[in-house]
Specification:
2 domains; two-stranded antiparallel sheet; Four Helix Bundle (Hemerythrin (Met), subunit A)
């Protein structure tokens, strides 16, 4: 077994155990075992990090930024962030979703034919910075989307007076506050990424990149609309969830749609 397969399988097992530890005790009177969940979650994230080092830096002066590696990196960043959040706040609904996706993706990636998309590590610094900020923004905004689902779930259970279902979840007001804080940070990062692209890159509206730029700008406008609607009009709940999902779909299509077609359908 090669090192990449070993890392992937080990991380998958750790993610699975952490997910299982939460789901089997989600509605237990004592709640999930936080120690077991966090221990295996942290182990999974550490192994996932080691895996990404081997996948990305195949040579000392180049980065393999193919679609498989980018999705794996996004999964790692989201898992790392949600794990850090869970060390301080309750995240019993978020962790199973994040951990299960990361684990399943790592196993699935082993069976996907690898492609190569090299970026120079020491050249085109602004291009790499633009990509890194864009990926950070994407991860933050996907976490905000998960928070929007969590707010919707908690609100629904409270309205139906199903208190047992939310006993081990964070308070609704706390989750709402975190949602819009994360959404604001992600939107700012996305704005900075787009601004840096307009200033330092010359091919944003080329035939190859025009659709990415347009979809990213549309997503940014939707995210800004959500924040404006919340802080000026008091928007929350179902409307925010729908708009957040729409914006995340636009951003996902912008970042990964063309890459998927180019690297898999047309290869």
């Amino acid at each position: 077994m090669d090192l990449i397969s070993l890392y992937s399988i080990t991380a998958f097992i750790a993610y699975f155990i952490a997910t299982f530890a939460i789901l089997t005790r989600l509605f237990h009177p004592s709640g999930p075992n936080h120690c077991i969940t966090m221990s295996f979650g942290c182990v999974a994230v550490i192994i996932h990090t080691l895996l990404m080092h081997h996948l990305l830096f195949i040579q000392s002066d180049e980065i393999n930024f193919n679609l498989i590696n980018v999705v794996s990196l996004v999964a790692l960043l989201i898992s790392l962030t949600v794990t850090a959040i869970a060390l301080k706040f309750k995240a019993n609904l978020l962790l199973p979703v994040v951990y299960s996706f990361s684990g399943i993706w790592l196993i699935a990636a082993l069976f996907i034919p690898p492609t190569v998309h090299l970026l120079p590590a020491h050249e085109k610094l602004m291009l790499i910075a633009h990509i890194v900020i864009a990926l950070i923004a994407y991860c933050i905004l996907i976490i905000a989307t998960l928070y929007a689902f969590q707010v919707s779930y908690i609100t629904h259970k409270l309205k139906s007076k199903n208190i047992a279902a939310v006993n081990h979840l964070p308070p609704l007001m706390q989750v709402q506050h975190q949602l819009f804080l994360i959404l604001a940070i992600g939107t700012f990062c996305l704005f900075v990424s787009q601004l840096a692209g307009f200033i330092f890159l010359d091919n944003l509206f080329s035939k190859e990149n025009a659709h990415k730029t347009v979809l990213s700008i549309l997503a940014l406008l939707v995210y800004c609309t959500i924040l404006w609607g919340h802080f000026k009009k008091g928007w929350r709940g179902h409307r925010v969830l729908i708009l957040t999902v729409i914006a995340s779909f636009l951003l996902t299509t912008a970042y990964f749609g063309s890459r998927f077609v180019k690297e898999f359908l047309l290869s």
